[in-house]
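Fill in residues.
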């Protein structure tokens, strides 16, 4: 069968390979691959900056934002042939740390976890794959191809959970949220904020293309100014930072409301410096009881929360996030293509009858 593979550590060595059919253990689902999403981590792996092949192998099947349709399921499974499913990315380390042992492998403390399509386990960018039932999450059938958004949604579901848990240290009743960045993570974070009934503001630098309309059609407010200017209108109780852009990160810390929470989901590149009034920032954080928390990855609880969020979303709006579909045979060229107006690029692995409802 065909799969998209790379040689980790070698820039640009991505190709469509013939690989062995997956072997299915007793508790595994056999899944027909439908699609995988492309994200920044995938691009880093293709550039040779990240990623680890399975032990004893040179190449890694990439793809961690999965969507598939069940071909075979164990007897008595909660899944049936034809169900849409997503595979969880991370696996706990073999001699689990305390977090992994309690099912919180997204918070692994010793770094010995593995990840499908990233770290030592083949990913989902293949025509067929297997997954243990315990690491599979069902997708509402009406979502169709939009189900491929479940993994990135799990990341922001966790981020919102972190906000709730920090807020629970005292009375917390947020009204206004700011999301920085209108990429897939930012838009999905904004979607959950709107579902929570918050007044959501989204900041991004572009002024045309699909992003402003996606935000407005969600019922949120789009900005292309600065955090400072937004704060003059509505000082945010919660900031979900989804860009990793250094100046924005520090501005978010400085401009949130008293007893505000800033959740960082964007990963910044190393080696870039900027001047920061560290004393002023410290003073603001302490005197306003502010919190800054980092959040990455997700566990089963967050995947299920993401599945629920997507199931309750406008499918037509979700489908508009998928701005480009690339067939598997053409996938290697999708990683060096200019971003342009794309929000989410998806690699299709099989023909899928997907007819989303018309946009409202």
């Amino acid at each position: 069968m065909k799969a998209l593979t790379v040689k980790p550590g070698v820039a640009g060595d991505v190709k469509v390979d013939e690989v062995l059919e997956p072997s299915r253990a007793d508790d595994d689902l056999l899944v027909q691959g439908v699609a995988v999403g492309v994200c920044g981590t995938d691009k880093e792996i293709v550039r040779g900056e990240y990623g680890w092949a399975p032990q004893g192998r040179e190449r890694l099947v990439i793809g961690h934002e999965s969507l598939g349709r069940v071909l075979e399921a164990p007897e008595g499974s909660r899944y049936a042939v034809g169900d849409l499913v997503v595979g969880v990315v991370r696996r706990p380390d073999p001699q689990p740390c305390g977090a992994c042992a309690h099912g919180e492998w997204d918070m692994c403390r010793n770094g010995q976890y593995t990840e499908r399509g990233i770290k030592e386990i083949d990913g989902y960018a293949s025509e067929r794959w297997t997954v243990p039932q315990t690491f599979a999450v069902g997708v509402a059938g009406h979502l169709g191809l939009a189900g491929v958004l479940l993994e990135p949604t799990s990341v922001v579901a966790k981020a919102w959970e972190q906000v709730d848990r920090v807020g629970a240290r005292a009375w917390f009743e947020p009204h206004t949220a700011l999301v920085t960045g209108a990429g897939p993570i930012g838009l999905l974070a904004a979607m959950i904020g709107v579902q929570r009934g918050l007044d959501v503001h989204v900041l991004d630098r572009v002024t045309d293309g699909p992003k402003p309309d996606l935000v407005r059609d969600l019922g949120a407010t789009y900005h292309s100014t600065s955090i400072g200017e937004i704060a003059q209108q509505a000082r945010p109780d919660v900031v979900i930072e989804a860009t990793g852009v250094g100046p924005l990160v520090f501005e978010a810390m400085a401009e949130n409301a008293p007893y505000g929470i800033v959740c960082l989901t964007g990963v910044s590149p190393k080696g870039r410096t900027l001047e920061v009034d560290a004393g002023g920032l410290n003073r603001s954080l302490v005197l306003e009881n502010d919190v800054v928390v980092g959040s990455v990855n997700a566990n089963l609880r967050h995947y299920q929360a993401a599945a629920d969020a997507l199931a309750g979303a406008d499918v037509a709006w979700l489908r508009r996030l998928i701005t480009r579909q690339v067939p598997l045979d053409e996938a290697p060229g999708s990683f060096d293509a200019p971003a342009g107006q794309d929000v989410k690029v998806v690699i299709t692995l099989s023909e899928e009858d997907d007819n989303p409802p018309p946009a409202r």
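The chain is about 25% helix and 25% strand.
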